[in-house]
Amino acid sequence: MKRKFTTTIMLAAVLAAASAMQRTLVPQTRDVEFLEVDSAAVADSLGGVDAPLLPQFEENAVSLRGFNKRVSDIEETFFVQNNTQWHLSGITVMLRYIDVNGGLLHERTVHVPCDLLPGGSRQVSINSFDRQRLFYYYLSGKPRKSATPFKVSARLMGYDIAITRPSE
If you compute the radius of gyration of the chain from its CA atoms, what whole number of angstroms results? Predict the structure, then answer.
């Protein structure tokens, strides 16, 4: 009887010690301190109550050009140019892939992350719709192996304006 009691006490002591060790391993958390915001300065930066908070969508805000996709490529590349006064962090584009006779092959909408300052241009890449590598963009050059040429049209569906803290 005494032996069982001693074993039980020892087991309880080991479990208590293990529990105490686990508690000390967890770091203490503290509230994050935020800098105070001058509400008058925020109101002034908005330009008054009647000023629009967001710009209106512009169809020609972004230009796309220089599309390329060879039959062996797993990505499609093209250039994106920012025609706005805003810093853009991404665009959303609807792409239509059409065979040379005008038949629709595929259609999809993709979001393309891009860091573009006003007036800036950048080459971007997206995963190709052609996972089996059977198609090529008709202006990318005819391949040696048998493949189907296609044309592509793009329509801007949206763009992301990056709002960042101004440098101090």
Answer: 29
CATH number, domain of 115, equals 2.60.40
In a domain, 6, yes or no: no
Q: Long-range contacts for 128-135 (Cβ within 8 Å, ≥24 apart)?
A: 128/69, 128/73, 128/74, 128/75, 128/76, 129/76, 129/95, 129/97, 130/69, 131/74, 133/71, 133/72, 133/73, 133/74, 134/71, 135/69, 135/71, 135/97, 135/105
Chain segment 13-54, per-residue pLDDT in tens: 555 555 555 554 555 555 666 666 565 655 565 555 565 577
Q: Quick one: which of 117, 103, 112, 105 has its CA closest to 75?
A: 112
Q: What domain count does the chain have?
A: 1
106 found inside a domain: yes
Ranges of residues in the chain whose predicted pLDDT is under 50: 6, 24
| Domain enclosing residue 157, as ranges | 62-161
In a domain, 3, yes or no: no
Q: Is residue 168 situated within a structural domain?
A: no
